[in-house]
Design brief:
By secondary structure, this protein is of the alpha/beta class. It contains eleven helices and twelve strands. The radius of gyration is 22 Å and the shape is globular.
Length: 345
């Protein structure tokens, strides 16, 4: 009989042995996506019992506060730890300085208060940025047609305080101004909000994949009305990888508790870099365009949408993300719960 010598190769070594049954694959899986890794973004509108479809974001609706509470309960029941709220503000309330952002009774603050009393144990994350509130659609204020960093930071730190006072657990500056994390942290500390977390959008690329989100909050049509058409003077250039480490390090030094990378799917290299180089959680955002592409292809029968979502989210975690914002969070979390009870993908 011929002895099989272990020569360090085939046939002694057969990697397929580890894949030969579902139980073997499950036993050795390096990455396990769980509902606690998923964060559900929600779009808020005025009114009661209102829901509006977003044409460019299949399956996503803008919801009035009462329905937001239902959605938060559903997310919590699916095991999701936190939701992220974005307001779709009436056009009549928008102005050049985004003043409505500082109104303690604005839509988002009312939503946060209602959520915190109805569903106290789910985390509430709010964007700190002016784009839902400005009539030019930019995240900051303009001086001489340009986005003025320091004037914007002074508004953002007050916006963060208004949100913290409403009960928001995590403020998430998504504006990409320089120095805003430090100013927000100092303002929160000085006002007794030591426990309010800052999730900084440290690495946010100027991306074509944000289009459906801008439809959902109603800012797409305003961009370019007065002021620049794009956000390239403040959001990062997607040609840059090392710059991401610099942005993240600055925000962490200023007091960020966690850093965000977005879009997730086009930044897996950056997520992986930061996972190694920084010591705070790296959170990734599967943005509107990434989600919409999968949904649109699935609607046309081109791909299996559920499998594609599960795969894309799992590899974002594999790259090093601690948690992921995704419009599919509740659906996927429900499926993950079913799988953990024995259902198979
Ligand atoms: C705005 C903001 C954007 C997103 C989150 N916050 C869009 C933008 O910068 O224009 C994008 C999210 C998505 O596309 O899902 N500050």
């Amino acid at each position: 009989m011929k002895m099989l010598l272990n020569t360090g190769g085939y046939p002694a070594i057969r990697p397929r042995r580890l894949r030969a049954a579902a139980w073997r694959r499950d036993m050795v899986a390096e990455t396990v996506l769980t509902p606690s890794n998923l964060i559900q973004p929600l779009f808020v509108i005025e009114g009661t019992a209102q829901r509006e479809a977003v044409d460019s974001l299949p399956g996503v609706e803008r919801l009035s506060i009462d329905f937001i509470i239902d959605a938060a309960r559903a997310a919590q029941a699916a095991g999701i730890p936190a939701i992220a709220l974005f307001p779709a503000v009436d056009g009549s309330l928008k102005d050049a300085n985004g003043s409505e952002a500082l109104n303690p009774d604005n839509l988002i603050c009312r939503a946060v208060r209602a959520l915190k009393s109805a569903v106290p144990d789910i985390g509430v994350i709010c964007d700190v940025a002016l784009d839902p509130y400005t009539d030019h659609g930019h995240d900051g204020v303009l001086v001489g047609g340009k986005i003025h960093n320091d004037n914007t930071v002074d508004i953002l730190r007050r916006q963060a305080l208004v949100l913290a006072e409403a009960g928001c657990d995590v403020v998430a500056p998504s504006d990409m101004m320089d120095g805003r994390v430090g100013e927000i942290r100092a303002t929160l500390e000085a006002s007794g909000f030591a426990d309010t977390m800052i999730l900084s959008y440290a690495v946010k690329y100027a991306s074509a994949f944000y289009g459906p989100f801008r439809d959902a909050v109603g800012s797409r049509k305003n961009l370019g009305a007065h002021g620049p058409r794009d956000k390239k003077t403040y959001q990062m250039d997607f040609r840059n990888r090392r710059e991401a480490a610099r942005e993240a390090a600055l925000d962490i030094a200023e007091g960020a508790d966690a850093v965000m990378v977005k879009p997730a799917g086009t930044s897996l290299d950056v997520i992986s870099d930061l996972h190694r180089s920084v010591d705070v959680p790296v959170i990734a955002y599967q943005v509107s365009g990434e989600y919409a592409m999968i949904k649109a292809a699935a609607e046309r029968g081109m791909i299996d949408g559920h499998a594609a979502l599960l795969e894309s989210l799992t590899v974002i975690k594999r790259a090093g993300a601690a948690a992921i914002f995704t419009y599919a969070a509740t659906d996927i979390a429900r499926a993950l719960q079913a799988y953990s009870r024995g259902a198979r993908v």
